């Protein structure tokens, strides 16, 4: 607080001014003040006026210094906050860039995996279709083989049945011939077994067939 300046002819109260002087920091101002106080006694009013002017100017300078120091502190604080904001902005931008890069990398990896899975599924589909076709052709081939075997078996069985029927008819014809022969000759004819491969058997067979057909 600045002390009140004395009016002309009024005695200056030095107590408040000395308290203000104790707060002064400039050596030049203190030196000027001490020189004025140490000067020989003269006109008390002039000396008081000069002292008042010095102290008033000193107080104003002190206030200006305080304001200037406060402004410097505010500037330093502003620069510090500006640097902090810049650092915070840089960190946020770095985090944003890292997030963007990670997201882009994740999307690229997902696309690559999608393409690889699509190719793998396509290859598996082709392999499966080819294998199914092979199995279908194998089934058709096995069915064709089984059908041919059945046809061969059918033909074999038909031939076997025909042979059995022919043999049965021949035996029946021979039995009828033998019975008729015995009946015609009143038991005077006897028969004997002849080997099928002999000449007599073939002749006899031809004779019997001609007689039956005639």
TrEMBL record:
Origin superkingdom: Eukaryota
Name of protein: Uncharacterized protein
Organism: Pinguiococcus pyrenoidosus
Source lineage: Eukaryota, Sar, Stramenopiles, Ochrophyta, Pinguiophyceae
